[in-house]
């Protein structure tokens, strides 16, 4: 499997996992503000990094106040954007650095493949926080482990 296929598979998993978490949040009888805030942050960060990769201006705040419906919209749109981005990239493209300013205004250069890996790990990290917050309210969080998605055939790049 080449790097493009690998990232396409990881972003397919990420999209599935985000959809699962949102389904769980919609199913809870009680609004869960912190999990929703974390999911909004995941989507906003992906939009931010896509803008950086494309050398475009940032369009969303880092911690937006999204409703479940706004999160659903992002969760529906982002997997296709990442799939298209990767389909139009080569391994050589992903090894190239991109220049950007972080949220503190500091200038940085990062390889595109490192940015993509960061996004996958960033989402998983925050979904873990969502799971902890959901469990703390007495609910059972959605099962979004990568290996579960593969074993069940739930991820199709």
List the helices and strands and how they pair.
Blueprint lengths: L2 H25 L5 H21 L14 H20 L3 H4 L2 E5 L5 E5 H25 L9 H6 L6
Antiparallel strand pairs: 1-2
Your description of this structure?
- This protein is mainly α and 157 residues long.
- It has a single domain (3-151), classed as dinb family like domain (Four Helix Bundle (Hemerythrin (Met), subunit A), Up-down Bundle), CATH 1.20.120.450.
- It has six helices and two strands, in the order ααααββαα.
- It has helices at 3-27, 33-53, 68-87, 91-94, 112-136, 146-151; strands spanning 97-101, 107-111.
- A two-stranded antiparallel ribbon has the order 1-2.
- Strand 1 and strand 2 form a beta hairpin.
- The chain starts with a helix and ends in a 6-residue tail after the last helix.
Average residue-wise pLDDT? 95
Number of helices: 6
| Strand proportion | 5-15%
CATH architecture: Up-down Bundle
- What is the name of the CATH class? Mainly Alpha
Number of strands: 2
Q: Roughly how much helix do the residues carry, as a percent range? A: 55-70%
CATH-level-4 superfamily name: dinb family like domain
Sheet with the most strands, sense and barrel status: 2 strands, antiparallel
Elements, N to C (H/E): HHHHEEHH
Give the radius of gyration: 16 Å
Low-confidence runs: none
Classify the secondary structure makeup into a structural class. mainly alpha
Shape annotation: globular
User: How many domains would you count in the coordinates?
Assistant: 1
Cα-to-Cα separation, first versus last residue: 13 Å
What is the assembly state of the chains in this entry?
A: single chain
Strand order of the largest sheet: 1-2
User: What is the CATH topology classification name?
Assistant: Four Helix Bundle (Hemerythrin (Met), subunit A)
């Amino acid at each position: 499997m080449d790097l493009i296929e690998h990232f396409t598979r990881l972003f397919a998993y990420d999209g599935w996992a985000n959809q699962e978490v949102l389904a769980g949040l919609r199913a809870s009888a009680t609004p869960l503000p912190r999990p929703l805030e974390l999911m909004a942050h995941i989507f906003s960060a992906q939009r931010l990094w896509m803008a950086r990769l494309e050398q475009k201006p940032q369009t969303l705040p880092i911690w937006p106040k999204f409703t479940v419906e706004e999160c659903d919209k992002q969760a529906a749109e982002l997997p296709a954007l990442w799939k298209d981005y990767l389909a139009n990239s080569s391994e050589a493209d992903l090894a190239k650095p991109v220049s950007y300013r972080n949220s503190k205004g500091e200038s940085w250069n990062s390889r595109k493949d490192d940015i993509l890996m960061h996004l996958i790990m960033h989402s998983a990290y925050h979904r873990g926080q969502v799971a902890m917050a959901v469990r703390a309210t007495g609910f059972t969080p959605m099962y979004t482990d990568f290996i579960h998605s593969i074993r069940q055939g739930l991820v199709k790049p």
